[in-house]
Every structure is written in structure tokens, then in C-alpha cells.
């Protein structure tokens, strides 16, 4: 009996010990695992925050360097005397640039002795010596490229927030030093951005390679430089591009886990970090929540383990969702930056292309020397390639202005056979199956050509050993439910098939994403199918991809059939154009004098009488004085009154006058199209202009007759 009692007591004691020890051991293991997971999550958060800071800083510095390049281009051929003489105009120009840049405090142009010729703050610029500023002294002896200065406070009579200067040297034609162009950037802009994305315990900073802190969160008062013997400066020297370390700050004494990354081609680092106390506090907070379920009796042990597992899964799922969201944010930022870049340069670039192409055509028309024919053809070819490049960039950013026309789809595709065959090698056969009947669709013919070329190039890369491409055009019925029963309708389709390697199921959902490509870095950009997708969407159609039975891939493009039949297009003849126009008078409104000269030459070829106006205000004055104007041809983007505003006034007060708006790129072009204005895309050819003018005059005559 005694033995049995002892055994029962020992058993109860063992159960008691086990009841205490097993939960304790399990809790210790769970605590260690949670600590490791928390460290991994924290490290991942720090690196993602660093990448966001890097993208933001690159965007700001690239915008500043573009502004400096723009200012340098404005004053390239101007002496200091000429700059001073034009100080008011340049001041207002710089002032407008500052108003469009939230990160910039001011723009400056200095002479060789450090005195401001022009700035965006005041006019006229006070005579103050800035030759002792670091952003000026750095360029005096030799060209150092882009220089990023220390954080400074404004010098009287100027006031305001602290800034750091970004400057470049002004170089004369003989290579001598003539001064600098300087941009004052606000550290508080960076600190405000850091505060938005920060959380308790976060640390972000922008540090120059020599240790000078340009911007920091939490913010500091005054200029602060990292000690050269500190851990960060040693890490910069040992691993100059990027790295991560745990360091105790010699500035505020806080210990942090920090990750840094150097900006390309700039002596600047972005840093992201978390306080180790915050990381540890997060872990203790997690374990405290676990303890609430770990202290109860043995029966609660299963619940505690289940909650810990659920907590771990939630952490990883949350981290994965955050990573996907931040990836989408980075992609959106890249698209927006490129969209702003393309939108900003496309208008001026297309103006230049039009001047070059128009001048080449004029020389070709007046100079019959056969020796000059080949160079002129090379110039025209280069202009066409430049126009296609601009259109591709705008298509990528979903900002291109389409010029839709009602065309016969089978005829249009058949006309592209020669172009498509030239883009593939001889061991690939091209077959086009098109019906003889007309299929009218409303699309931009140029964008249709680019879309088919992109699909052809993709098919060629999928068939390195040769194969066959089949393009099938036709119509098909689809059912649409409407009120009672089903009603059948038709849609046009283009099926583009190849017998290449096909599309893996794992990537089929991503093939239309911008920048997504399976090709090597030097073989593809990932923009081709994205451009096709954008064109089809803007044409109110849809596109899908599938694998072809037996190998290969098939892309199916669906386009709505136009109720209006396709009009035959024929090349207009110059000698018959004057008969089409009669003695038409065209008011040409263009602020770019070279583009104005080219457009006027185009119009005069067709017998038009041309009146010139360099602004919308001048055009209004001409319209009020003249009664013989038939058509107004105006650029959309102009200083002061825009072409769209001018067109609205003409439509309201002179409805008998036709309005044609021209644009290389403008966000107002879409609005103008929606309002019913005729749009012609720069750089336009004489034939395109002739067709637009003839169509406008025809509409006016028809309206008068009715």
C-alpha cells in the first residue's frame, strides 16, 4: 500500500513538474522563435524603407539636375551682361520653376566672382557676395560636376528655412570658369516625407559621403557631421555601396539597426533604421500577449500554441502583403516619374523634329542636286525614328494622344505585310488570312502598326530556329444579354499565332505588365506587350493570350466594329490641293518661330494665305480685325492663353471659322478631343496637314449649305 501511495505521489509530482516544465520549455522555444522572426521582419522593413528613400531621393536629385540643365540651356549663349539685361524675364522663368517644385527653395545664376546675376527670390537681385559659400568655391579651380553643399542658413537680406545647395559649373566656349548655376534644396522637404512614412522608433537620414547630415528624422537643430571614427563612417569606407550594421549613435546615444545605400553617381547615402529598443519592445509586446494565454493551466496550453502559430502566420502574411503593396508603390512611382518626364519633353522634342523634318523636306523640294538626296533622306528617316520613339514613351506612360480613323482592318493589315516581313528572319514564314469584305474599325493606324510589330518581334524571339506566324482577321458573334433574351452582335478580331515555345502558365497573368519580360537584360525592356495592351484599351477593345494546341502562342485582339464605313485614303497631290483649298486664309497660331515657319511653308505649298500669330492673345486681336479667316491652326501648349482656350473662344464667337489644334504632347489634348476639336499630332507632315485643312473646309462648306 505504502509503495503504491509513494508511486502515486511521485506520479502526481511528475505530472505537476511536467505540467509546469513542458509549458515553460514550449514557451521558451516559442519566445526564441518569435525573437528570430521579429528580427527578420524588422530587417525586411528596414531594407524596404531604405529602397523607398532611395527612389524618393533619386527622383528629387534627377529633377534638380534636369532643372539645372534647363537653366544652362536657357543661358547657354548669353554673356553675363546679356543675363543681367534679361534679369526680369529670367527671374520670372526661375520663379515659375520654383513654384512647380516643392523640394526647391530657389534657383540662382552666379557670375565668376560669386555675385548673383539672377535668382528666383527677388528682382532685381541685391549685390551680395556669395563667393565664400561652399557651393561656389568648389567649382572655381576645376569642374567637379554636380556638387552637393552643406546645410546653410540664408544670408541677409534673404530669409527663410535652411537649405543645402546643388550646383554645377558654367563653362564658356573656351572652357574657362564663368560662374555657377545653383539650386537651393529644402532639407525640411525630405524630413516631411520621412515623417509621413515613419513610425515610433524609425530613423531616416540623407547623409553626404563625408558624414555631413543633410536631412534627418528625427530632425536635428543645426549642422551635424558624423564623427570620422564612428561606426557608420567606418562602414562607408569598408563597404562604400551599401551595407547594414547595428550602431550606437554618437549624436543622440540611441542604438539602432541601420541599412544604408549610396545613390548612383552622387556622394550621398540614404539610411533607414529602427531603434533596437523598438525592435525589442515589439518582441516583448508580442510575448506579453502570448503570456496572457500561456499562464493558465495545462488545458490552455493547446490554445496558446495555436495562437502562437496563428500569430506567426499572420506576421508573414502581413509582411508579404506589405511587400506586394510597396512593390506596386515603387512601380507606380517609376511610371509616374517617366510619365512626367515624357510629358515634359515630348512637346518640345516633337517641335524640334517638325523643324528638322520640315526643313529637310523644303531643301529636298527646292534643291535638285542628287548628291544631297541621300543625306536628306537620312534626316527624314531619323525624324521618323524620333517620332516613333516619342510615341513609344508616351504609349508606355498611357499618355499618348491617339489619332483614330475609321479604316478597313483587312486592308490595313495587308498593307503592313512588307513591314512585318522585314522584321523577321528568312526562316520564319508569314501568313495573313484576311476576308475580301470590308471590316471597318476606328483605330489609330500608326499604333496598330506598332502593335503588330511588337507581336511579330515577340514571336520571332520565341522561334529562334524558324517557324510560322499566322495572322487571321475576321468577325465573330458574341451574345449580350439585354432586357429580354439574348441579342447577337459582331466584333472584329485579329488572331496572331506562332508555333514557338508558348507562354508558361505561371507567367501568363503578368505578360502585359510594364517592365515584365523573360528575355535577358540586353534583349528586351518589357514594354512591347504593355504598349499593345495600352493601345487596345484606348481603342475600346480587349486582348487575351493563350497557348496554341501543338505548341506556340495565340494573341486575340477584339475591336468594336464602326458603324461608319472606312473612307478610301489616297495621297493628296500638291497641284490639286490649291483647288481643294481655293483661296483659304489660315490663321497660324504658334509661339515657336521655327515651327511657325515650317507650318507656314506647308500651308503656302497648298495655296493658302497665311496669317501669323505668336500667342492666343494676338490671334484674338487678328480675329477681331479680319473677316476673311477660314481656319485657325493653333498649337495647344503656349504661354498665356492655351490653344484649347483659344479654340473655345473661336467656337463661341466665330462659329463659322474652323479650328484645328496641334500638339506634340499635352494633357489637354484628350480634353480637346472630347470637346470635338480636330487634333493633329506633331510633327505633322504636309500631307497630314493638307488632309486636316481640306476636311475642315469641307465641313464648313457643308454646314453653310445646310
Explain how this protein is built.
About 3% of the residues have low confidence. Helix 8 packs antiparallel against helix 9 and helix 16 packs parallel to helix 17. The protein has 19 helices and 22 strands. It is globular, with a radius of gyration of 34 Å. It has 706 residues and is of the alpha+beta class. A hairpin with a 4-residue loop joins strand 6 and strand 7. It is 48% helix and 21% strand. The termini are far apart. The protein has a five-stranded antiparallel beta sheet, sandwiched between helices. It has a five-stranded antiparallel beta sheet with strand order 7-6-10-9-8. Strands 12-14-15-17-16 form a five-stranded mixed beta sheet.
Topology:
Layout: H1 2-74, H2 80-85, H3 87-99, E1 104-110, E2 116-119, H4 134-140, E3 147-152, E4 163-171, E5 177-185, H5 187-197, E6 202-208, E7 213-217, H6 231-238, E8 242-248, E9 255-262, E10 268-275, H7 276-294, H8 301-366, H9 373-396, E11 405-408, H10 409-415, H11 417-422, E12 428-433, E13 440-443, H12 445-462, E14 467-481, E15 486-498, H13 528-538, E16 542-547, E17 553-560, H14 574-581, E18 585-589, H15 593-605, E19 609-613, H16 616-625, E20 631-635, H17 643-653, E21 658-663, H18 668-674, E22 678-681, H19 686-705
Parallel strand pairs: 12-14, 18-19, 18-20, 20-21, 21-22
Antiparallel strand pairs: 1-2, 1-5, 3-4, 4-5, 6-7, 6-10, 8-9, 9-10, 11-13, 14-15, 15-17, 16-17
Helix pairs in contact: 1-7, 1-8, 7-8, 8-9, 8-15, 12-13, 16-17
Amino acid at each position: 500500500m505504502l509503495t503504491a501511495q509513494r508511486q502515486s505521489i511521485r506520479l502526481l509530482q511528475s505530472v505537476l513538474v511536467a505540467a509546469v516544465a513542458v509549458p515553460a520549455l514550449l514557451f521558451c522555444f516559442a519566445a526564441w522563435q518569435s525573437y528570430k522572426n521579429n528580427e527578420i521582419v524588422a530587417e525586411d522593413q528596414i531594407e524596404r524603407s531604405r529602397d523607398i528613400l532611395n527612389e524618393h531621393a533619386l527622383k528629387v536629385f534627377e529633377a534638380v539636375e534636369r532643372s539645372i540643365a534647363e537653366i544652362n540651356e536657357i543661358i547657354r549663349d548669353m554673356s553675363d551682361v546679356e543675363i543681367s539685361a534679361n534679369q526680369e524675364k529670367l527671374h520670372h522663368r526661375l520663379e515659375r520653376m520654383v513654384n512647380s517644385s516643392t523640394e526647391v527653395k530657389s534657383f540662382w545664376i552666379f557670375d565668376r566672382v560669386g555675385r548673383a546675376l539672377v535668382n528666383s527670390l527677388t528682382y532685381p537681385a541685391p549685390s551680395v557676395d556669395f563667393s565664400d559659400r561652399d557651393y561656389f568655391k568648389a567649382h572655381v579651380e576645376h569642374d567637379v560636376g554636380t556638387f552637393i553643399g552643406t546645410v546653410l542658413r540664408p544670408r541677409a537680406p534673404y530669409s527663410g528655412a535652411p537649405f543645402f545647395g546643388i550646383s554645377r559649373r558654367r563653362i564658356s566656349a573656351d572652357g574657362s570658369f564663368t560662374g555657377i548655376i545653383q539650386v537651393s534644396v529644402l532639407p525640411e522637404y525630405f524630413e516631411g516625407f520621412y515623417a509621413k512614412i515613419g513610425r515610433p522608433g524609425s530613423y531616416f537620414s540623407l547623409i553626404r559621403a563625408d558624414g555631413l547630415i543633410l536631412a534627418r528624422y528625427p530632425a536635428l537643430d543645426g549642422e551635424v557631421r558624423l564623427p570620422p571614427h564612428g561606426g557608420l563612417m567606418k562602414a562607408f569606407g569598408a563597404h562604400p555601396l551599401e551595407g547594414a550594421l547595428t550602431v550606437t549613435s554618437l549624436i543622440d546615444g540611441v542604438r539602432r539597426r541601420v541599412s544604408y545605400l549610396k545613390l548612383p553617381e552622387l556622394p550621398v547615402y540614404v539610411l533607414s533604421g529602427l531603434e533596437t529598443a523598438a525592435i525589442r519592445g515589439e518582441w516583448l509586446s508580442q510575448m506579453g500577449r502570448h503570456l496572457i494565454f500561456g499562464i493558465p493551466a495545462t488545458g490552455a496550453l493547446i490554445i496558446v500554441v495555436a495562437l502562437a502559430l496563428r500569430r506567426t502566420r499572420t506576421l508573414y502574411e502581413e509582411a508579404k502583403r506589405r511587400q506586394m503593396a510597396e512593390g506596386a508603390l515603387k512601380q507606380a512611382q517609376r511610371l509616374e516619374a517617366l510619365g512626367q518626364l515624357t510629358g515634359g519633353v515630348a512637346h518640345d522634342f516633337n517641335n524640334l523634329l517638325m523643324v528638322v523634318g520640315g526643313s529637310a523636306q523644303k531643301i529636298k523640294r527646292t534643291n535638285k542636286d542628287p548628291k544631297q538626296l541621300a543625306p536628306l533622306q537620312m534626316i527624314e528617316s531619323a525624324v521618323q525614328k524620333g517620332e516613333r520613339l516619342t510615341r513609344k514613351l508616351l504609349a508606355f506612360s498611357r499618355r499618348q494622344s491617339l489619332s483614330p480613323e475609321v479604316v478597313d482592318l483587312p486592308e490595313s493589315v495587308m498593307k503592313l505585310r512588307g513591314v512585318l516581313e522585314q522584321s523577321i528572319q528568312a526562316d520564319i514564314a508569314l501568313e495573313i488570312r484576311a476576308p475580301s469584305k470590308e471590316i471597318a474599325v476606328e483605330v489609330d493606324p500608326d499604333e496598330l502598326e506598332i502593335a503588330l510589330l511588337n507581336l511579330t518581334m515577340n514571336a520571332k524571339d520565341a522561334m529562334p530556329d524558324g517557324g510560322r506566324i499566322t495572322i487571321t482577321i475576321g468577325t465573330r458573334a458574341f451574345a449580350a444579354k439585354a432586357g429580354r433574351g439574348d441579342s447577337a452582335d459582331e466584333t472584329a478580331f485579329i488572331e496572331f499565332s506562332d508555333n514557338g515555345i508558348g507562354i508558361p502558365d505561371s507567367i501568363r497573368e503578368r505578360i502585359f505588365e510594364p517592365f515584365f519580360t523573360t528575355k535577358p537584360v540586353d534583349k528586351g525592356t518589357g514594354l512591347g506587350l504593355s504598349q499593345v495592351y495600352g493601345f487596345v484599351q484606348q481603342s475600346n477593345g480587349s486582348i487575351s493570350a493563350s497557348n496554341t494546341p501543338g505548341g506556340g502562342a495565340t494573341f486575340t485582339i477584339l475591336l468594336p466594329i464602326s458603324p461608319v464605313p472606312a473612307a478610301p485614303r489616297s495621297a493628296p497631290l500638291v497641284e490639286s490641293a490649291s483647288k481643294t483649298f481655293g483661296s483659304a486664309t489660315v490663321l497660324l497660331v504658334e509661339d515657336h518661330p521655327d515651327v511657325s515657319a515650317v507650318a507656314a511653308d506647308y500651308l503656302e505649298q497648298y495655296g493658302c494665305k497665311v496669317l501669323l500669330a505668336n500667342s492666343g492673345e494676338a490671334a484674338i486681336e487678328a480675329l477681331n480685325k479680319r473677316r476673311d479667316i477660314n481656319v485657325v491652326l493653333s498649337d495647344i501648349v503656349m504661354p498665356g492663353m492655351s490653344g484649347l482656350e483659344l479654340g473655345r473662344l473661336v467656337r463661341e464667337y466665330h462659329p463659322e471659322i474652323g479650328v484645328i489644334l496641334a500638339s506634340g504632347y499635352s494633357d489637354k489634348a484628350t480634353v480637346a478631343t472630347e470637346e470635338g476639336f480636330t487634333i493633329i499630332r506633331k510633327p505633322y507632315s504636309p500631307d497630314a496637314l493638307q488632309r486636316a485643312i481640306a476636311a475642315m473646309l469641307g465641313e464648313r462648306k457643308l454646314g453653310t449649305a445646310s
